[in-house]
Amino acid sequence: MEGSSGADPSAAPLPLAKWRSDFARAFQYYLDKSKPHSVGRWIGTLVVVLTYVLRVYLIQGFYIISYGLGIYLLNLMIGFLSPKVDPEIEVMDGASLPMKGSDEFKPFIRRLPEFKFWFSITKAFCIAFVMTFFSVFDVPVFWPILLFYWVVLCFLTMKRQIMHMIKYRYIPFSIGKKRYTAKKGSAGSRSDGMDGRTFTGLFT
């Protein structure tokens, strides 16, 4: 009798697929819950970075991984500092960033949002840390040359980005929106000259 013995082959991977689905769902849940806590997220990332740096320092190797990691971080930084829409394209389309106080206000929107910027950095350092446990990635190189080349590349890239900011008059870091709150007792101006204005954080 055909098919009378043995289990269905398609049923074997189901527990693994269910575990992966449950893990991905739980991971996304906690990732979404961490989004408002920017300070705590960056402190955790700092711990990961220091752990990676300490490991590379102690084993005196895996410099090629660190170099690739540095190039990737530089690319992320450019995306974080760049506007979502290139001002050069806006000029070609007839639109432009506001140059005068009478122009329409256009908030700065990053090409790479802060949360994705943080998550990409953290994930990159975690992957690099795992790679340091495999000797195949420990390619012998003269690390001062890699460090010098990365510093030069970083200088040239940031110089070009700063010139782009100056040309199109935008600042990637904003103090935040102004909020006006009613003063207790009277509506007069405050003695400190702030007129009830408060400011939000940098990464908005």
UniProtKB/TrEMBL annotation:
It comes from the Eukaryota. One of its GO terms (biological process) is protein retention in ER lumen. Pfam families: Rer1 (PF03248). This is Protein RER1. Belongs to the RER1 family. Involved in the retrieval of endoplasmic reticulum membrane proteins from the early Golgi compartment. Keywords: Membrane, Transmembrane, Transmembrane helix. Coiled coil: none annotated. The keyword Translocase does not apply. InterPro entries: Rer1 (IPR004932). It is a multi-pass membrane protein.
